[in-house]
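[Q] Does anyone have a clean structure-token version of this?
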Amino acid sequence: MNFRALHIPVLKLVCITGIFLCLQQRANAQYGQYDTIVREAVIFNGDTIESKTLGNFYTYAHMTEAQKAARNEYNRLRNAVYVTYPYARRAGVVMNDINAKLEHISGKSERKSYIRSREKELRKEFTKPLTDLSIYQGKVLMKLINRETGNNCYEIIKEYQGGLTARLYQTVAFFFSTSLKQPYDAANDDATIEKFVQEVQRMYGFQDIRKKQTM
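[A] Here you go.
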């Protein structure tokens, strides 16, 4: 018997059997958990093409000098409101209480006596922290006091100390490029300040207790 001639058919048989088993295993793999995978597709010129959505691609540009200046001014104002609003709120509470009490005091001497007694309270509580404010922060504070009391600082000082004292303070404020007669317009000119005030109120749980505009 020619064993060499017999070896060749056996080798072919082994190869064919191996190929058949591989094909069968591959065919069986098509019927498993992932035999069908749903993909998005689009039809383009009659051909069905798989569709994929790429992730977001962000591009950034350098800020202009005007944009940097606007950002700095925005942050400066926001910081000033965060610093001064607690003082304006507390001062507003005291001043509104004083004004409410004065409505029931008609005598001139009695009014002055009551104002002096409350003035000590204001000086004790606010003199030190307010002297540490910058001119810019002081200007914002006057606006916020107007917001809380419904009166500008000039009218408040005029009521408490008299017209001469109010004019004196107004003259000093003039040299610091500001004014005690700071208006407050939450809907227009001071809308950004109002936005920051509401932000502070939400952050610290403050209720809005301001008195509406009276002057």
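[Q] Thanks! Anything notable?
[A] Residues 67-151+184-204 form one domain.
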